[in-house]
Prior knowledge:
Blueprint: H1 2-6, E1 11-12, E2 21-22, E3 31-34, E4 37-38, E5 56-62, E6 77-82, E7 90-98, E8 124-136, E9 140-156, E10 163-174
Parallel strand pairs: 3-6
Antiparallel strand pairs: 1-2, 3-4, 5-6, 7-8, 8-9, 9-10
Amino acid sequence: xxxxxxxxxxxxxxxxxxxxxxxxxxxxxxxxxxxxxxxxxxxxxxxxxxxxxxxxxxxxxxxxxxxxxxxxxxxxxxxxxxxxxxxxxxxxxxxxxxxxxxxxxxxxxxxxxxxxxxxxxxxxxxxxxxxxxxxxxxxxxxxxxxxxxxxxxxxxxxxxxxxxxxxxxxxxxxx
Length: 175
């Protein structure tokens, strides 16, 4: 969704923590929907990442001339629709890898990558799979998707300045 937004006219990543501003509106004035349900988080107004990237069929970014049926926003509107099954079996499988230490150093003095004795996270694989097809041709279809990732991030405690690894087990399912 973020990549599709950056290709749209009048969209700039100038809000807090890189949030998107559309047509000069504040970043929390945008509307994000997934299959018609609003997925806007309340604090900064950005989209909750409740979707599986490989399960998205289309992403529409509207920056002007948006129909009044959507309402509740002054910036832009982003609408995402997930895939559905069809009369032909199809699917995908993808693996990507990430590591916190592949990013560049920050100017912050407490960046854990500057300390050679700090705990270092390993490479984190992320698995995504989709599969869909007919239950009964031209009548009933199914579609399912999953994303599995066990993430590790190097952090430091605020007062004692001790390095540690923070884990996050991200499991998403869509049907």
